[in-house]
Amino acid sequence: MSESKAWYAPKGLCFTCTGCGNCCRGPETGFVFLSAAEITTLANRLGISEEEFGRSYLRQVLGGRISLIEKANLDCVFWTEGKGCEVYEDRPTQCRTFPFWPEVIESAEIWKEEAVYCPGMGKGKRYAPPAIEALAGGEGGTPDGPDGP
Ligand code: SF4
Ligand code: SF4
Questions:
Q1: Which of 22, 58, 85, 118 has most ligand 2 atoms within 8 Å of CB, for mutation?
Q2: Range of the domain at 86
Q3: Which ligand neighbours the alpha carbon of 95 most closely?
Q4: Interval 110-143: pLDDT, tens
Q5: Does one domain contain both 36 and 48?
Q6: Mutate-to-test residue for ligand 2 from 91, 93, 98, 117, highest number of ligand atoms within 8 A of CB
Q7: Are 143 and 106 in a shared domain?
Q8: Domain tally for the chain?
Q9: Is residue 12 domain-shared with residue 53, that is, in the same domain?
């Protein structure tokens, strides 16, 4: 396997979510895009049909893409203060793979800028380049090194 030439190679990047909810709450609007399979999973979790889930939890945005709705305060519809994400185990891939999104890992500068809002970035479990690239591609990727910056 060829060595990664990414800016974060060879050490990788550290991240452990603190559960602060900054990426799930307002005050700015945000989008959580879902695949058809994720809609099915969440509808099943809530014990309702996909049609009912669509009526209650989804909106069409940006060129027809499907996103979760937000509460009036612009928090994600599944964020509950004091409890966190109500569907955490089944949260969409977009949530599961943050902060290892292609646009966030593009450069050290962008990673640092994003870390201002996400206290888990740069701390905790270390992800090696292959795990980071798997997550950036929307797949699972597990930390595989000792904790620490
Ligand atoms: S902003 Fe970062 S630390 Fe806070 S909940 Fe989101 S991923 Fe976790
Ligand atoms: S689905 Fe859960 S993890 Fe994703 S934005 Fe909403 S509250 Fe946060």
A1: 85
A2: 25-91
A3: 2
A4: 999 999 999 999 999 999 999 999 999 988 666 6
A5: yes
A6: 91
A7: yes
A8: 2
A9: no
74, 29 Cβ separation under 8 angstroms:
yes
The structure's pTM equals: 0.89
Residues 116 and 72 in one domain: no
How many Å lie between the centroid of ligand 1 and the Cα of residue 134?
19
Euclidean distance between CA atoms 52 and 46, whole angstroms: 10
Long-range contacts of 60-63 (CB under 8 A, 24+ apart): 61/31, 62/31
- Alpha-carbon Rg of the chain, whole angstroms? 16
Same domain, 6 and 34: no
Instruction: Give the DSSP H/E element, type plus range, for residue 113.
Output: helix 108-115
Looking at residue 90, what DSSP letter applies? G
Across the strands, what pairs with 59? 67
Considering the domain architecture, whether residues 7 and 53 belong to the same structural domain is answered as no
